[in-house]
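Continued from yesterday's entry.
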Amino acid sequence: MPDNHYENSRLADVYDLDSPWSIDRDFYLSLAGDTKIKILDLGCGTGLLCNAYANQNHDVTGIDPSIAMLNVARTKPHGKDIEWIQSSAQTFHSDKLFDLIIMTGHAFQVLLNDDDILATFASMRKHLDSGGLIVFESRNPAINWAAQWNYEMVLETPECVVHESRRFIAMENDRMTFELLYQFPDETLISESELRFLSRNDIEQRLTACGLYADKIFGDWDGTSFNEKRSPEMIFLARANDL
């Protein structure tokens, strides 16, 4: 089922307020370097990172299944310099090959079954240029995410104030369900979501099945090595096996 958090145009308009520029985007931006390269952002959302890459004169393609998110992305300062494509990561096809392919914002965890994961990794491999790099992250399932999941915040838009809250519902096996509640002055919108929490070994096995391997795995955005018991993140820097 479509996730209202991404599909609803009113929620897409306030997305950058509850997900502004952050340390993870600093990390991804630093991967591009100074020399112009071709970058593919799978699940680009509202295009914050794509815009930052384009600002550094990189050749950027942003894809997302949500037309509402892409409509916001096109309004960014460098929106006209970026190739925007409405597509899922699983079904994306281009004649281009990319030096850097990214999937940010824990979008990997939205892939709820193995078929979608394998199709996404296969698409990444297919579009990766020689010597290219694939980078994505997933939350470490060893961390008690349920205990720290809920929050409340206030979003101030030019038109109104929006009260947002996130509520943990359940963790069953490797699946978490939760809801986001957005209270506008004239309506309340609810988004129900589900995420999958795979282990490092589970993810590496699926990379291997698609001709990829994890060259490095960081445990946080400062570049520290992954610690299975303590690291909040699993940040995979993957390459093709035959390069």
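--- second protein ---
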Amino acid sequence: MILNKIDLVGDETLKTLRRDIEKRLRPGVKVLPARDATVAPNIALGLAAAVEDDLAQRPSSDDTANAHDHDDFESFVLTLGPVADRTEFLARLRAAIAAHDVLRVKGFVDVPGRDRREVIQAVGDRVQHYYDRPWRTGEERSSRLVVIGEKGLDRAAIAAVLAG
């Protein structure tokens, strides 16, 4: 849910409005604040769904020369090992999203014994996963996820939850 025109109210009013709105939303729906009606379209609409195809080239907020183009958000790429227990991993993913106010997660995981990548896409608490294309010859099999949230994400805690 996009909360627009936050630039027109003070900090305390914003906190009150946000609390009141969050009480009315279904669990897992995140409130995305927007100043001057500006929200990065790829975050608001989930555009560029093929982002999992180029995770290695995607800048994170650690890359100061190519930092995320919106100061209120940050993202980072998390590389994990193979995911043997998909059910447990998806439960950990949902727990990390809920506990750390993650807005989006996109990427793929390496499931041993499967010749295809498992794509993971999450918006709030809605998590989709499916197998897409086969791993390519010479392609490194690894689990890589882009985690997107508001500024101040606890990267270490999120990584710890997802690593199990």
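The domain at 43-163 is CATH 3.30.1220.10 (Hypothetical Protein Yjia; Chain: A;domain 2). Helices lie at 11-24, 41-45, 86-100, 155-163. Will compare against the first tomorrow.
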